[in-house]
Target: Beta-galactosidase
Amino acid sequence: MINDKLPKIWYGGDYNPEQWEAPEWAEDERMFKLAGIDVATINVFSWALIQPSEDTYDFSTLDELIDRLYKNGTYVCLATATGAHPAWMAHRYPEVTRVDVQGRKRKFGGRHNSNPNSPVFRKFAAKLAGKLAERYKDHPGLVAWHVSNEFSGYDYSEQSAAAFRVWLQERYGTLDTLNKAWNTRFWGHTFYDWEEIVVPNELSEEWNGNRTNFQGISLDYRRFMSNSLLECYKLEYNAIKEHSTNIPVTTNLMGFYPELDYFEWAKHLDVISWDNYPSLDTPVSLTAMTHDLMRGLKNGQPFMLMEQTPSQQNWQPYNSLKRPGVMRLWSYQAVARGADTVLFFQLRRSIGACEKYHGAVIEHVGHEHTRVFRECAELGKELEQLGSQLLDARGQAEIGIIYDWENRWALDLSSGPSVALDYVNEVHKYYDALYQQNIEADMISVEENLSKYKIVIAPVLYMIKPGFAAKVEAFVQAGGTFITTYFSGIVNENDLVTVGGYPGELRKVLGIWSEEIDALLPGMSNELVMNKEWGALSTSYTCDLLCDLIHPEGAEVLAQYGTDFYKGMPALTVNSFGEGKAYYVATSPEARFLQGFLANLCAEQGIQPLVSAPAGIESVQRVKDGMSYLFLLNHTEGELSADIGTAVRTDILGGEELKGTVVVPSRGVLILKGALLNG
Amino acid sequence: MINDKLPKIWYGGDYNPEQWEAPEWAEDERMFKLAGIDVATINVFSWALIQPSEDTYDFSTLDELIDRLYKNGTYVCLATATGAHPAWMAHRYPEVTRVDVQGRKRKFGGRHNSNPNSPVFRKFAAKLAGKLAERYKDHPGLVAWHVSNEFSGYDYSEQSAAAFRVWLQERYGTLDTLNKAWNTRFWGHTFYDWEEIVVPNELSEEWNGNRTNFQGISLDYRRFMSNSLLECYKLEYNAIKEHSTNIPVTTNLMGFYPELDYFEWAKHLDVISWDNYPSLDTPVSLTAMTHDLMRGLKNGQPFMLMEQTPSQQNWQPYNSLKRPGVMRLWSYQAVARGADTVLFFQLRRSIGACEKYHGAVIEHVGHEHTRVFRECAELGKELEQLGSQLLDARGQAEIGIIYDWENRWALDLSSGPSVALDYVNEVHKYYDALYQQNIEADMISVEENLSKYKIVIAPVLYMIKPGFAAKVEAFVQAGGTFITTYFSGIVNENDLVTVGGYPGELRKVLGIWSEEIDALLPGMSNELVMNKEWGALSTSYTCDLLCDLIHPEGAEVLAQYGTDFYKGMPALTVNSFGEGKAYYVATSPEARFLQGFLANLCAEQGIQPLVSAPAGIESVQRVKDGMSYLFLLNHTEGELSADIGTAVRTDILGGEELKGTVVVPSRGVLILKGALLNG
Amino acid sequence: MINDKLPKIWYGGDYNPEQWEAPEWAEDERMFKLAGIDVATINVFSWALIQPSEDTYDFSTLDELIDRLYKNGTYVCLATATGAHPAWMAHRYPEVTRVDVQGRKRKFGGRHNSNPNSPVFRKFAAKLAGKLAERYKDHPGLVAWHVSNEFSGYDYSEQSAAAFRVWLQERYGTLDTLNKAWNTRFWGHTFYDWEEIVVPNELSEEWNGNRTNFQGISLDYRRFMSNSLLECYKLEYNAIKEHSTNIPVTTNLMGFYPELDYFEWAKHLDVISWDNYPSLDTPVSLTAMTHDLMRGLKNGQPFMLMEQTPSQQNWQPYNSLKRPGVMRLWSYQAVARGADTVLFFQLRRSIGACEKYHGAVIEHVGHEHTRVFRECAELGKELEQLGSQLLDARGQAEIGIIYDWENRWALDLSSGPSVALDYVNEVHKYYDALYQQNIEADMISVEENLSKYKIVIAPVLYMIKPGFAAKVEAFVQAGGTFITTYFSGIVNENDLVTVGGYPGELRKVLGIWSEEIDALLPGMSNELVMNKEWGALSTSYTCDLLCDLIHPEGAEVLAQYGTDFYKGMPALTVNSFGEGKAYYVATSPEARFLQGFLANLCAEQGIQPLVSAPAGIESVQRVKDGMSYLFLLNHTEGELSADIGTAVRTDILGGEELKGTVVVPSRGVLILKGALLNG
Model:
């Protein structure tokens, strides 16, 4: 449980009453009651308010706010307010603003705007976090700490350059080691003095975001920057913990946000929290995968849904309304996949600046007689009813899908073979193939203990870190099923190619050699032709993007290419290795293939779909104390049915006992408590 | 009359003889005579010529030129030459060049390149204007002053930052007021010292042109910059007026140019002038609307067509030739809509630099035996014949369409609900619906006296300035018909939302409440279904972009949405208010709807089409001394007929008496004098 | 012969063994032997290696490498290593890095990164080249010098600005002459002091790459920058020649690379070399044209193919593999068109940084059992067999096509009439029309002696330099056939329009006057209608882009426009002038027209196709000692036949005697020795 002061699914969200006047505060309180709101995230952007000058702190407004909320039954998730520095600080200490990727020194403006390697910024941020912790640590309304906000963005200042050189000295020890790791003999980049190293940006090695001359340098800068921001987080974390030891500390993450290695970050968060902002046209399985990734950051520990909009965003190109029922549906999707809170951005809409058209529980009209408020209040009531029974329940997947931020960085930075390669998209293809069949998967890191799973899928695992190949071999040896794809096993953690034949360190377990990699032009495709019918798979499937030209070295060929000069060469292989099997998918096939392929593997491993249901139904279970909570979510506008099997289950929202075919209403949700499924 | 020295439609244009040698000057004179050219705009870019150094002025060439032209029968529109500073000034006083929106300090180059808040630039510019006025104020050839050229572009220098702070102090008085106006509590942007305020650009709050974190700051910076350039204009205006009190002063505007609030500027111009550069594929009704806007800047006062090309532009991607007859046709379109001059850029083509492929009366070949010259000379003859009879004639529209630059800025800067919202385009939809039915409209500011009109249309009037809502109420109360649309009435002049329910201050007169605003994805549409047949409207029409979800509060529902979850909710309402009616169009409908809708309202108000004519005919009248000059312009390649009614009218170009059905030749023009239409 | 130490087609390529360890060097040697590799280009990016600090040079590794290679039978093309400066130099002397077109000072990074006007860079570069020449001039393995690498990129530093002013003073003598050449009276840009002149970039006159306010300034800056880099080349050239007089010196060019005037450069290269990187979808005739241009740089002298990839690139968006046989086919295409070397980038793949996915003879797998290596080794064997017989053989075209870099710059920089005008593409249309008919052409400069040719084609020759028009007149007078197109003859070498009627100085020889130029919108087209059937041409053809509206002044009209207001005006004319004819193609016609048109002209001039062959066959001959080597290249995947005529020819690869119809295998090559064709 995140904090047993409030043993239920927390309900509420970001609340910025400093933006309006006291008369509205009373209205806020009244409406929070109506909506069943019991948690408010406050103080997120109040640095300028609570520290109006270098030497002055003024907590009076905050004191009053926390007391007022607590009296009204609202707990607080207290932010440290360091997500944007005050104007006075930027004016007096220009070093706190960033230098951007183009090398331009920024002035005051925006948020997430602080140079993470500015000693001045670090000093002020840690001091503020400490003061807050000292002051509020014992307040009965305090349930969580929220450090800064959506850490993001890189800096290229001289302070960061200096810190980068120190970081490199710690990482590599000697320049000789660094020169080798970065292969600086290429283009005569050998460094003879640490001071010669400059940050990689548009003034040196990079252009157009992810283009770089030196993958090694750019990769290390991403590591360093992810760590610089993490250092800022940790400074505040430690300052808080010095006073407030038993209140959980988090910072709100952003799903697949590319710039930070959240698996590294997760080690320093007491509880994961994240902000979920799908568009009208975001595939629901992509949202599901993102929840699963967030749950996976701390090995399955339930997380906080820190932000979502009750109705619409403002920063998308086209900010469509969430259709009726969708806010509730997506809230339960989060809960189904591990969230123990349902929090909104925001409780009341701003009236000025760039987020005023972002949806809120209390809209600009100011009263409760709105569609949005009614939906919020109904959900509030339901969450009240649910009480604590779902808290701490966990998933029980038998399949792990590997996702790795450093691998993503290396792929994004790669010059060749194809700009169309999108790591998240390729991972999602495998995830979606399971999702569509009502089969659960965990999103896991390369550091995960693989033996927890029957099947491990590692799409486009381009970078193999030390020890990982051995771990895969042990996993397969012991009977596991391992799947990887084209353009995997190519480089080590420094983006240096493992010579001797692709897929490098994975070659042995896969029993193949990949000789060449063909990149297909847009509009081009090839075919993946099954050598023989295999379970759900027969005849042929289209594929595109990249085609590895591989040779079996012990592996069995299951399918081959259908056209072009490599027609007849293997496109899908399986290698028996010890007690297990290792599959190589040499190209990027259509969804129909992946569904059949994974269906076959699940069947072999005895992994059953949770339910039998048509497309549009999402199913997932949370497990607690031996009982399963089966979620059925209907993402369509019409009523759909699912077959939950012969055992009786209790619909904990509706109260009925159900079995066999159950009906899920349009955009509706069933939470069915009963015996463990597929466990 | 702009200047009674030349009581006819002035004919001529920009003339830069300093770019070539004396022998060609004699040729110029000969050809001006052949073409009937009687006005030359000179000295536009001659600063470096007439002030070759800080302390030296040399007017000898200009003296000679003005005398020479006058002797040849050509009057001059004399420019102050400050549209581009000399190289020596940029070299000696770097402060005169601008800092761009990216924060980059510019060097010498281009035009419209001066920092408007540079004291050095201001000093030199005003001094030059004064010297010119002093020297030429009594020259018999002088008919108008032309300050600088196409004022445009913003600056982000330290001088502008300092001036911005002063401007803000004047506007807001206290930082507290400013902090409230900008809602700086959002993201903790509270300013505690004026010096903490920096200009909003890509180094602080803005990106991608119109994207900003703080609408209030960016909106004020647009106001400030429009005003900074206006201050530069006024400095020159005043310097001229000190010597030359009776010659009209203007500067050439650019239609819907976004960066300057021309309604503010117009107050300081003696006569409006503007540069008209449609492309081959610009809708003719958009050009018409732009002329009407320019006429509307000074409440209907005739204006100067200061520039148009006789043949082609050079700066468009594809610079097509004006087809035969089109130059004449578009010249008369300008006259029909209020122009009392027909001036070209340019009289003779440059041979070097970036405008050498811009068309001219005298082409590079140098003689008169060209299609372009022949067409120019024929028009010159006609304008000679027309004499003074059209001068000062005015329009007589019964419909006003509101256009507001600050509203445009606020819409452009808005984060949400849809990037597809284009204010000018939405205004044009209403204008065009009238244009296609031969019904005239004035383009008016929010400061206009509405009681002049039977119908006032205010598309997407997002920003309601103080007093405007009351004015609308009075207008409708007294019997007027008011129309506005979705996303109107939302904010005040500081872009702060009017809480309590959209459309804010307009809610009462419209009798509705708009609860939510849905943004449609590209390709999505909804339907607007009539509740019953109403005049020209029946069944249903498509709509897209944005859909307000509204509730009637006294208004009658005329149409409803046809699909999506808000099917059945009102899409078009009318509220009876006093003696008048207020309509709310809750979405952006197709043209077919808008034509029927406005036809109905005109019928109700007894507003008749000027003529009955097929598509392709443009009709408009100018009125003088109780007589009407009806212009019929055929924009197609074939002959077309129109019915002008039973009263006899005189074709003042052809000399015939006409009534009933008249024929307008391909790309031809009729100007028919007769009794007032629709008055 | 490039160097008679190695009297055969050189085979090998770029080799960077400093990037790996000694054990692999032995493998390299073994595999070079297997592949028949006899030339390695070394030391290209080794500056940091051989000069580890300002005062230290260390040639030990290089000594060893050259000796080792020589012992293994591999000669060296020795680079001067100045294509990228060392990090220590950028750190100690920041002036060596560039300022970019946006005015941003760069830091250390990338390659081709040196400020060409930095005295420090120039000093170090020349010194290094001299030291290398002194040390290795007598090494028996040395066969060529390779200065720097792919010279490219412009600089906008203060050093370059100062050098630009000096260059301008030398070019123009007085400011008055400069002001006239740049037409600075336009926009009042008159310079009164040399110091007022700044470099044209995004901070002054330019934007978006080729957009500029002053074509004259930007054109001169391109000349100046091309020359600045050439000066750097020449410094090294001279430093080498001081010691090493008899070894040819080159630098690797890049085909139609826009930024450098290679015709100027070619005067200072002993032998042309270039890097050929077509994509999977590059038209083979465009590659052919580029080879011909490179051959034309030194009037037909054979050149070095310095780089091509054995398999795939890494820097294209989609890096497809060269299909089997294509590497060999394209290698022979180079030889057929004048290459006396076949060299690769690269002999062994890097394992790190941005080129690690660029193909190599030795792939990452490290052994010889790859498709790529096998194909390389087979070609190595063939080239061994061919020996010296093709060396120094030359082309024998009777048609010259003019290409001019300054003309390209002027067209690229032009503001109007159409952004769709692409000079290289328009030239290629004419080249391709001949290529498709198996008719050879030379790519020639405007300085070429035209009397070598029966037909000279000058597509879009917008800029006419002094003396060129007279040369064309003399050529036609004497019986030559000259062809030019729309938008030709417009400006002089300063981009100043030749007044008095387009096409200016070419008007007399063409016998026409072009009155106007219409730019067609995308999707628009016109028709070119033959006045009567003429040889291969009849009826009508589409045309687009630009349409000149011309009047014959003595010329005969062969075709007219079919639509729009200029229907019936001439679209194709021919003027008899002395003994010859001058054609004007007033628009950009479809390929079908150009093939017929050029077929007619060739027929008139007795120019025969080399062979009769279907589409997909490329034919070209090299001539030596009165014998012809006819190359037939089949670019398709199927077998094709060609008719080589009745004379017997020897297939020098296969050894057979052939005549009449010969079969060229899929992606195959025949080299048929025999009597001169078409000579």
User: Anything to note?
Assistant: The radius of gyration of chain C is 26 Å. The mean pLDDT of chain C is 97. Chain C is about 30% helix and 20% strand. The longest helix of chain C spans residues 215-241.
